[in-house]
Amino acid sequence: MDYNLDELKIKAIQIRRDILRMVHAVNSGHPGGSLGCTEFFVALYGVIMDYKLPFTMEGKNEDLFFLSNGHISPVFYSTLARFGFFPIPELATFRKLDSRLQGHPTTHEGLPGVRVASGSLGQGLSVAIGAALGKKLDGDENLVFSLHGDGELQEGQIWEALMFAAHHKVDNLISTIDYNNRQIDGDVDDVMSLGDLHAKLSAFGWEVLEEKNGNDLEAVIAILNFAKSKTRQGKPVVIILHTEMGSGVDYMMGTHSWHGKAPNDEQLALGIKQLYLEAPGDY
Ligand SMILES: [Mg+2]
Fold it and tell me: Which domain of life does this protein belong to (predicted)?
Protein backbone atom coordinates (compact mmCIF):
# COMPACT_ATOMS: atom_id res chain seq x y z
CA MET A 1 0.00 0.00 0.00
CA ASP A 2 1.16 3.53 -0.75
CA TYR A 3 1.31 5.33 2.58
CA ASN A 4 4.32 6.88 4.28
CA LEU A 5 4.94 6.66 8.01
CA ASP A 6 3.78 10.22 8.77
CA GLU A 7 0.49 9.63 6.97
CA LEU A 8 -0.01 6.41 8.88
CA LYS A 9 0.67 8.07 12.25
CA ILE A 10 -1.99 10.68 11.43
CA LYS A 11 -4.35 7.86 10.48
CA ALA A 12 -3.73 6.24 13.86
CA ILE A 13 -4.74 9.47 15.64
CA GLN A 14 -7.80 9.78 13.43
CA ILE A 15 -8.81 6.18 14.12
CA ARG A 16 -8.47 6.76 17.87
CA ARG A 17 -10.72 9.82 17.58
CA ASP A 18 -13.22 7.73 15.63
CA ILE A 19 -13.19 5.02 18.30
CA LEU A 20 -14.00 7.49 21.10
CA ARG A 21 -16.66 9.32 19.10
CA MET A 22 -18.38 6.14 17.88
CA VAL A 23 -18.60 4.59 21.35
CA HIS A 24 -19.63 7.88 22.98
CA ALA A 25 -22.39 8.52 20.44
CA VAL A 26 -24.31 5.38 21.39
CA ASN A 27 -23.05 5.09 24.97
CA SER A 28 -21.91 1.52 24.34
CA GLY A 29 -19.04 -0.43 22.82
CA HIS A 30 -15.45 -1.36 23.55
CA PRO A 31 -12.91 1.49 23.46
CA GLY A 32 -10.07 -0.01 25.58
CA GLY A 33 -8.96 -2.91 23.40
CA SER A 34 -9.74 -0.90 20.27
CA LEU A 35 -7.32 1.88 21.29
CA GLY A 36 -4.68 -0.69 22.26
CA CYS A 37 -4.80 -2.38 18.84
CA THR A 38 -4.77 0.79 16.72
CA GLU A 39 -1.12 0.47 15.62
CA PHE A 40 -1.67 -3.18 14.72
CA PHE A 41 -4.59 -2.30 12.43
CA VAL A 42 -2.82 0.66 10.83
CA ALA A 43 0.27 -1.48 10.18
CA LEU A 44 -1.81 -4.33 8.79
CA TYR A 45 -3.98 -2.29 6.43
CA GLY A 46 -1.48 0.47 5.69
CA VAL A 47 1.66 -1.58 5.03
CA ILE A 48 1.53 -5.31 5.57
CA MET A 49 -1.48 -6.82 3.88
CA ASP A 50 -1.88 -7.30 0.17
CA TYR A 51 -5.63 -6.80 -0.37
CA LYS A 52 -7.94 -5.77 -3.16
CA LEU A 53 -10.51 -2.97 -3.32
CA PRO A 54 -13.38 -3.07 -3.88
CA PHE A 55 -13.78 -5.87 -1.39
CA THR A 56 -15.08 -9.25 -2.48
CA MET A 57 -15.84 -12.17 -0.22
CA GLU A 58 -14.06 -14.58 -2.57
CA GLY A 59 -10.63 -13.51 -1.28
CA LYS A 60 -8.54 -15.35 -3.85
CA ASN A 61 -4.99 -14.16 -4.50
CA GLU A 62 -5.09 -11.59 -1.72
CA ASP A 63 -4.26 -11.65 1.99
CA LEU A 64 -7.13 -12.25 4.40
CA PHE A 65 -7.72 -10.96 7.93
CA PHE A 66 -9.97 -12.46 10.59
CA LEU A 67 -10.78 -10.54 13.78
CA SER A 68 -11.43 -13.14 16.44
CA ASN A 69 -11.97 -10.77 19.40
CA GLY A 70 -14.88 -9.15 17.60
CA HIS A 71 -15.83 -6.81 20.43
CA ILE A 72 -13.05 -4.43 19.36
CA SER A 73 -15.17 -3.64 16.32
CA PRO A 74 -14.67 0.17 16.64
CA VAL A 75 -11.01 -0.03 15.61
CA PHE A 76 -11.84 -2.58 12.89
CA TYR A 77 -14.66 -0.47 11.40
CA SER A 78 -12.74 2.79 11.58
CA THR A 79 -9.71 1.18 9.91
CA LEU A 80 -11.82 -0.30 7.13
CA ALA A 81 -13.49 3.05 6.48
CA ARG A 82 -10.26 5.04 6.65
CA PHE A 83 -8.57 2.63 4.20
CA GLY A 84 -11.38 2.82 1.67
CA PHE A 85 -13.54 -0.26 2.24
CA PHE A 86 -16.74 1.75 2.80
CA PRO A 87 -17.76 5.43 3.15
CA ILE A 88 -16.37 7.16 6.25
CA PRO A 89 -19.71 8.84 7.23
CA GLU A 90 -21.17 5.37 7.79
CA LEU A 91 -19.13 5.24 11.02
CA ALA A 92 -21.89 7.45 12.49
CA THR A 93 -24.27 4.46 12.31
CA PHE A 94 -22.20 2.33 14.72
CA ARG A 95 -24.41 0.07 16.88
CA LYS A 96 -27.64 1.60 15.55
CA LEU A 97 -30.67 -0.38 14.39
CA ASP A 98 -30.33 -1.60 10.79
CA SER A 99 -26.72 -0.39 10.60
CA ARG A 100 -24.08 -2.51 8.87
CA LEU A 101 -21.81 -1.65 11.83
CA GLN A 102 -23.20 -3.85 14.58
CA GLY A 103 -21.56 -4.14 18.00
CA HIS A 104 -19.94 -7.38 16.96
CA PRO A 105 -19.09 -7.82 13.26
CA THR A 106 -21.20 -10.19 11.21
CA THR A 107 -21.28 -11.02 7.52
CA HIS A 108 -25.08 -10.78 7.42
CA GLU A 109 -25.03 -6.99 6.99
CA GLY A 110 -22.59 -7.23 4.07
CA LEU A 111 -20.12 -4.67 5.40
CA PRO A 112 -17.06 -4.69 3.09
CA GLY A 113 -14.00 -6.06 4.90
CA VAL A 114 -15.83 -8.36 7.31
CA ARG A 115 -15.21 -12.01 6.43
CA VAL A 116 -16.63 -13.74 9.50
CA ALA A 117 -18.99 -13.10 12.39
CA SER A 118 -16.97 -12.81 15.58
CA GLY A 119 -17.41 -12.01 19.20
CA SER A 120 -18.04 -15.53 20.42
CA LEU A 121 -14.48 -15.78 21.65
CA GLY A 122 -12.15 -18.62 20.73
CA GLN A 123 -13.47 -19.36 17.26
CA GLY A 124 -11.50 -17.07 14.98
CA LEU A 125 -8.30 -19.10 15.02
CA SER A 126 -10.11 -22.14 13.68
CA VAL A 127 -11.64 -20.00 10.92
CA ALA A 128 -8.26 -18.53 9.98
CA ILE A 129 -6.68 -21.98 9.86
CA GLY A 130 -9.45 -23.21 7.58
CA ALA A 131 -8.94 -20.25 5.25
CA ALA A 132 -5.17 -20.81 5.24
CA LEU A 133 -5.62 -24.48 4.37
CA GLY A 134 -8.04 -23.43 1.62
CA LYS A 135 -5.38 -21.17 0.13
CA LYS A 136 -2.92 -24.06 0.10
CA LEU A 137 -5.43 -26.29 -1.69
CA ASP A 138 -5.99 -23.53 -4.26
CA GLY A 139 -2.27 -22.97 -4.82
CA ASP A 140 -2.87 -19.39 -3.61
CA GLU A 141 0.41 -17.84 -2.36
CA ASN A 142 -1.18 -15.14 -0.22
CA LEU A 143 -1.27 -15.13 3.58
CA VAL A 144 -3.91 -15.24 6.30
CA PHE A 145 -3.77 -12.99 9.38
CA SER A 146 -5.78 -13.18 12.59
CA LEU A 147 -6.03 -11.23 15.85
CA HIS A 148 -6.97 -12.58 19.28
CA GLY A 149 -7.30 -11.17 22.77
CA ASP A 150 -5.10 -12.57 25.53
CA GLY A 151 -8.15 -13.24 27.69
CA GLU A 152 -9.58 -15.07 24.69
CA LEU A 153 -6.83 -17.67 25.02
CA GLN A 154 -8.68 -19.02 28.06
CA GLU A 155 -11.11 -20.62 25.59
CA GLY A 156 -10.40 -24.31 25.06
CA GLN A 157 -11.03 -24.27 21.30
CA ILE A 158 -7.95 -22.07 20.88
CA TRP A 159 -5.64 -24.83 22.11
CA GLU A 160 -7.19 -27.46 19.87
CA ALA A 161 -6.72 -25.08 16.94
CA LEU A 162 -3.11 -24.37 17.92
CA MET A 163 -2.39 -28.10 17.97
CA PHE A 164 -4.18 -28.67 14.66
CA ALA A 165 -2.32 -25.88 12.85
CA ALA A 166 1.09 -27.16 13.87
CA HIS A 167 0.23 -30.75 12.98
CA HIS A 168 -0.98 -29.71 9.52
CA LYS A 169 1.95 -27.30 9.00
CA VAL A 170 -0.29 -24.30 8.35
CA ASP A 171 2.71 -22.08 7.63
CA ASN A 172 0.83 -19.42 5.64
CA LEU A 173 -0.85 -18.05 8.77
CA ILE A 174 0.26 -15.19 11.05
CA SER A 175 -1.79 -14.92 14.23
CA THR A 176 -1.32 -12.05 16.66
CA ILE A 177 -2.17 -12.03 20.35
CA ASP A 178 -3.18 -8.64 21.79
CA TYR A 179 -1.17 -9.15 24.97
CA ASN A 180 -2.42 -6.35 27.25
CA ASN A 181 -2.93 -8.52 30.35
CA ARG A 182 -6.45 -7.14 30.69
CA GLN A 183 -9.86 -8.67 30.12
CA ILE A 184 -13.44 -7.76 30.97
CA ASP A 185 -13.25 -8.77 34.64
CA GLY A 186 -9.74 -7.66 35.51
CA ASP A 187 -6.13 -8.55 34.84
CA VAL A 188 -5.65 -11.80 32.92
CA ASP A 189 -3.14 -12.90 35.55
CA ASP A 190 -5.84 -12.60 38.22
CA VAL A 191 -8.75 -14.11 36.26
CA MET A 192 -6.88 -17.12 34.82
CA SER A 193 -3.20 -16.68 34.10
CA LEU A 194 -1.78 -17.73 30.75
CA GLY A 195 1.48 -18.62 32.50
CA ASP A 196 4.52 -18.71 30.25
CA LEU A 197 2.65 -18.03 27.01
CA HIS A 198 5.76 -17.91 24.85
CA ALA A 199 6.84 -21.37 26.07
CA LYS A 200 3.34 -22.79 25.70
CA LEU A 201 2.89 -21.59 22.10
CA SER A 202 6.35 -22.82 21.26
CA ALA A 203 5.61 -26.22 22.82
CA PHE A 204 2.48 -26.40 20.63
CA GLY A 205 4.75 -26.23 17.57
CA TRP A 206 4.36 -22.60 16.51
CA GLU A 207 7.06 -20.13 15.50
CA VAL A 208 6.71 -17.59 18.32
CA LEU A 209 7.69 -13.93 17.95
CA GLU A 210 7.31 -11.25 20.58
CA GLU A 211 7.16 -7.45 20.39
CA LYS A 212 7.23 -5.40 23.57
CA ASN A 213 6.22 -2.09 21.93
CA GLY A 214 2.86 -2.91 20.41
CA ASN A 215 1.82 0.74 20.40
CA ASP A 216 4.88 1.88 18.44
CA LEU A 217 3.84 1.85 14.80
CA GLU A 218 7.34 1.29 13.43
CA ALA A 219 7.93 -1.60 15.82
CA VAL A 220 4.60 -3.20 14.86
CA ILE A 221 5.35 -2.87 11.15
CA ALA A 222 8.79 -4.41 11.74
CA ILE A 223 7.52 -7.42 13.69
CA LEU A 224 4.78 -8.10 11.13
CA ASN A 225 7.32 -7.93 8.31
CA PHE A 226 9.61 -10.26 10.25
CA ALA A 227 6.65 -12.62 10.77
CA LYS A 228 6.10 -12.67 7.00
CA SER A 229 9.72 -13.74 6.53
CA LYS A 230 9.02 -16.70 8.84
CA THR A 231 6.08 -18.06 6.82
CA ARG A 232 6.38 -21.11 4.53
CA GLN A 233 8.91 -22.77 6.79
CA GLY A 234 6.68 -25.56 8.06
CA LYS A 235 5.24 -23.79 11.13
CA PRO A 236 2.35 -21.41 11.79
CA VAL A 237 3.58 -18.05 13.10
CA VAL A 238 2.29 -16.22 16.17
CA ILE A 239 3.19 -12.76 17.48
CA ILE A 240 2.79 -11.96 21.16
CA LEU A 241 2.16 -8.22 20.83
CA HIS A 242 2.45 -6.32 24.10
CA THR A 243 -0.05 -3.45 24.05
CA GLU A 244 -1.66 -1.03 26.49
CA MET A 245 -5.42 -1.17 26.80
CA GLY A 246 -6.74 2.36 26.22
CA SER A 247 -3.49 3.52 24.62
CA GLY A 248 -3.51 7.20 23.68
CA VAL A 249 -6.13 8.32 26.21
CA ASP A 250 -4.53 8.72 29.64
CA TYR A 251 -7.52 8.03 31.85
CA MET A 252 -8.27 4.80 29.97
CA MET A 253 -4.79 3.34 30.50
CA GLY A 254 -3.56 1.24 33.42
CA THR A 255 -6.95 -0.38 34.09
CA HIS A 256 -9.36 -2.93 32.62
CA SER A 257 -12.35 -0.72 33.41
CA TRP A 258 -12.60 0.73 29.87
CA HIS A 259 -12.87 -2.72 28.28
CA GLY A 260 -16.54 -2.14 27.46
CA LYS A 261 -17.57 1.29 28.72
CA ALA A 262 -18.31 4.51 26.86
CA PRO A 263 -16.89 7.90 27.85
CA ASN A 264 -19.37 10.59 28.94
CA ASP A 265 -19.39 14.07 27.34
CA GLU A 266 -16.57 15.46 29.51
CA GLN A 267 -14.45 12.33 29.12
CA LEU A 268 -14.93 12.41 25.35
CA ALA A 269 -13.81 16.04 25.21
CA LEU A 270 -10.73 15.23 27.29
CA GLY A 271 -9.83 12.24 25.12
CA ILE A 272 -10.30 14.16 21.88
CA LYS A 273 -8.04 16.90 23.24
CA GLN A 274 -5.32 14.32 23.85
CA LEU A 275 -5.71 13.01 20.30
CA TYR A 276 -4.93 16.30 18.65
CA LEU A 277 -5.12 16.35 14.90
CA GLU A 278 -3.89 19.35 12.94
CA ALA A 279 -6.20 18.70 10.01
CA PRO A 280 -9.38 17.35 11.56
CA GLY A 281 -11.05 14.70 9.48
CA ASP A 282 -13.79 13.63 11.85
CA TYR A 283 -16.81 12.01 10.20
MG1 LIG B 1 -6.76 -8.47 26.78
Answer: Bacteria
Distance 278 CA to ligand 1 centre (A): 31
Measure 175 CA to ligand 1 centroid, in angstroms.
15
Phi, psi of 55 (to 5 degrees): -65, 135
Residue ranges per domain, the chain?
5-275
Helices then strands, each counted (H, E), the chain: 10, 7
Q: What is the CATH number of domain 5-275?
A: 3.40.50.970
What's the pTM value of the predicted model, to 2 decimals?
Answer: 0.98
Q: How far is the CA of 212 from the centre of ligand 1 (A)?
A: 15
Per-residue pLDDT of the chain (283 residues; tens, 9 = 90+): 678 999 999 999 999 999 999 999 999 999 999 999 999 999 999 999 999 999 999 999 999 999 999 999 999 999 999 999 999 999 999 999 999 999 999 999 999 999 999 989 999 999 999 999 999 999 999 999 999 999 999 999 999 999 999 999 999 999 999 999 999 999 999 999 999 999 999 999 999 999 999 999 999 999 999 999 999 999 999 999 999 999 999 999 999 999 999 999 999 999 999 998 876 699 9
